[in-house]
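Retry 2 of 3 after timeout on previous attempt. Resubmitting structure tokens to design endpoint.
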């Protein structure tokens, strides 16, 4: 008879958050597949558990799935854990679950802490509808497309980010979505837990230049659209931004101001200002030619 695969949630910081069921399952299974055996080893030692550990991380996940399946088919029960929180959420786990289901092997879940949910509920932003985006692409068109899609999403957005890239991501969100409310949560449940709340521009100013450490969750307010309304017309928004540019504003600042007034994402307005002729350059050239003509008469 085949064994059972258990997806076990583990503490995201404070070890006291381990559940009684998680403690029991980790002690009763034949094998624990861990993203970091050293980190999980310390947890098991703290719990007084001596279950055998094997590594199961992104680099060896594909290879390890086959071996875990062999153990499960032979009747062994296997628990999968990540470094912290729920496995398979931006961590290894999905491939082994899919493989077990294809092989007719039972899969069970032992719920536990989740940094994404913890950050969402402590953010102060709406929790009735939200979307989890994990890590954004680091660069290229994929990143721009994801940011543009999120800019028009009315749901609260939950992201993971590294300390090194946090300021850049906040800046990109500000450019694309306008100055929305945001909460940056780091080191949740740990000694140095911190939640920074405010507008994107304010939080960006707060974190810029700081040497942050630990895992970071970013929670961003969704696009605000009143009942019965739609996000403003892009052409009108770009026209408004064009007026700001004529008055001396830089294009990126003009795009942000127009976004705040119309609801159209600032990134789309800025791209339009740069790539299309909405009369800014042409108007300036015509005015310049007119002034030269006046002087020649």
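Retry 2 succeeded. Sequence:
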């Amino acid at each position: 008879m085949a064994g059972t695969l258990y997806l076990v949630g583990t503490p995201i910081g404070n070890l006291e958050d381990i559940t009684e069921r998680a403690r029991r399952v980790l002690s009763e299974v034949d094998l624990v597949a861990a993203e970091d055996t050293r980190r999980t080893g310390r947890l098991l030692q703290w719990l007084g558990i001596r279950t055998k550990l094997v590594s199961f991380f992104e680099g060896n996940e594909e290879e390890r799935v086959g071996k875990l399946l062999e153990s499960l088919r032979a009747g062994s029960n296997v628990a999968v854990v990540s470094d912290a929180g729920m496995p398979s959420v931006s961590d290894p786990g999905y491939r082994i679950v899919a493989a077990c289901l294809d092989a007719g092997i039972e899969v069970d879940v032992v719920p536990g802490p989740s940094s994404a949910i913890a950050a969402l509920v402590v953010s102060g932003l709406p929790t009735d509808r939200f979307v989890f985006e994990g890590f954004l692409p680091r660069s290229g068109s994929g990143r721009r497309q994801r940011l543009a899609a999120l800019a028009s999403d009315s749901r609260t957005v939950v992201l993971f980010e590294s300390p090194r890239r946090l300021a850049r991501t906040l800046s990109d969100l500000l450019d694309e979505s306008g100055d929305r409310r945001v909460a940056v949560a780091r080191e949740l449940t740990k000694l140095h837990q911190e939640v920074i709340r405010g507008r994107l521009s304010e939080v960006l100013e707060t974190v810029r230049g700081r040497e942050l450490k630990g895992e970071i969750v970013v929670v961003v307010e969704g696009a605000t659209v009143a009942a019965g309304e739609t996000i403003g017309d892009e052409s009108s928004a770009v026209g408004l931004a064009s007026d700001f540019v004529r008055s001396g504003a830089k294009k990126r600042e003009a795009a942000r101001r127009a976004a705040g007034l119309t609801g159209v994402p600032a990134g789309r307005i800025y791209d339009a200002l740069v790539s299309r002729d909405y009369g800014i350059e042409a108007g300036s050239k015509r005015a310049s030619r007119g002034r030269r003509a006046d002087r020649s008469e």
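Attempt log closed. The radius of gyration is 25 Å.
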